[in-house]
Write a structure and sequence with these properties.
Blueprint: H1 17-22, E1 25-30, E2 33-40, E3 49-50, E4 57-58, E5 64-69, E6 78-80, H2 82-86
Antiparallel strand pairs: 1-2, 2-5, 3-4, 5-6
């Protein structure tokens, strides 16, 4: 009989605080290009943002998502209502506030 080998369990990966707070990000492909998309839970939504899909405010405490182009800059991030993001390919251009 061969001896037992006691293997130490792999150390868990260190938890990235931003990932834990804001969720993981994924890449979505659409007719408008490739986008990084990150979900924001209602508990972590601390500020009001204007959704580019409907031009309405996303109130603090509202779950939503942040999207930015894969080949873009960080300052191109936009906060969207989740249904507005999903419908962006079916909507026409909207008048924007100035």
């Amino acid at each position: 009989m061969s001896p037992r080998r006691h293997r130490r369990a792999a150390a868990p990966d260190r938890l990235d605080e931003n990932r834990a707070r804001f969720g993981g990000q994924s890449v979505e492909h659409g007719v408008d290009g490739e986008w990084y998309v990150r979900s924001i839970s209602g508990g972590n939504a601390e500020k009001a943002y204007r959704c580019p899909g409907c031009d309405q405010l996303i109130q603090p405490g509202t779950a939503h998502l942040v999207a930015w182009p894969v080949h873009g800059e960080v300052d191109e991030r936009r906060h969207w209502h989740t249904p507005c993001w999903r419908a962006r390919g079916r909507r026409g251009p909207r008048a924007r506030r100035r």
